[in-house]
Amino acid sequence: MANVIDIAGLPPERIVFSPSPLAELGAALHVLSEPGHHPGLHGWATATTSALKPDLADRLCEADFLWRTARSDLLLPAAPGATLAEELDALDRIDDETFVAAAFEIACSPSYTRHTPSPLVDAGERARVLELAAARGPRQAAFTERMLEDPDGLRVWLRRLLEDCDQAFFADTWRRTRIQLAADARHKAELLQRKGLAEALASASAALSLSDDGDSILVDKLAGGRTTAYGDGVTFIPTAFGWPHLIVLHAPGWRPVIQYPVATPELPPPAALELVQRRLEALAHPMRMRLCRSLARGPHTTGELSESYGITPPEVSRHIAVLKKAGLLTTRRRGRYVLHQLDLPSVARLGSDFLESVLR
After folding, report:
1. Res. 114 pLDDT band, cuts 50 70 90
2. Does domain 273-359 have CATH number 1.10.10.10?
3. Which residues belong to any copy of the HTH arsR-type domain (predicted)?
């Protein structure tokens, strides 16, 4: 499954790699609200949370639906600015209906790729977002009701919240990360210019690729969607707070935006979703699970496994073929014998690969 961004006929100069302070603040706020997603940032999250003033912590809890389970489209600017203030000024210029509709967009929702009316003008959409907010908790429900009743006042409140975050912790964080993010964006832009989009995408993330015909950007995610970048183009935003997430803004009428985690040596490359699914399916069969018990302890031939488990050699061969196709076995020849053994590092990574896939 993949998100598809149609770029047929799009000039290369409309493909932009740029850091964004607002997008990075959104990513940092997500880490604070869901530190379990980001074990590598546990120290930063703990220190930052413990230093927050109670009033700011309470207000962050109130508005956390904007960045907790998914990232609001408002936090992924298509035209990144040089400063947070500049990007917040751009948000202020969005009309109320567009602002409120974008605030309630959930990228993993099946309806994300369909145009939905603003809850400010559509009673059905209003009822839907109020019900969703009620499920998140009373404070979130109250926040949502305030946004629907007084969008102008709530927008002022939200800007002040983000500015207070900047003063409390983000300005210092941004000073430390922006140089790395700017360097990464420059590197990707140079790759785009010198070697083409396929190289730039592969450098950004193993989950990004160019279609065979070169007309589409493919994003390997469980949630599928499709959009076009004919007009304004597409924006790629690096983040130091993103892994394991790869965020894609592909709502109708919006310029596509992809926020990708900056690669570091300690981060494993993401496994393809198809491979993760193939491995889970391979291990779901009870006989293959039993065969793995022996294969984990050492190398075995097909004949040895057939005798141990009371099944025919062709049956063993079929199970071995499935496990090999899933990349879970290593094979070596010793004379006329072929020895199979479980690839322990691949199996050990399966849990983290699955978790990374569903969080991506």
Report:
1. low
2. yes
3. 268-360
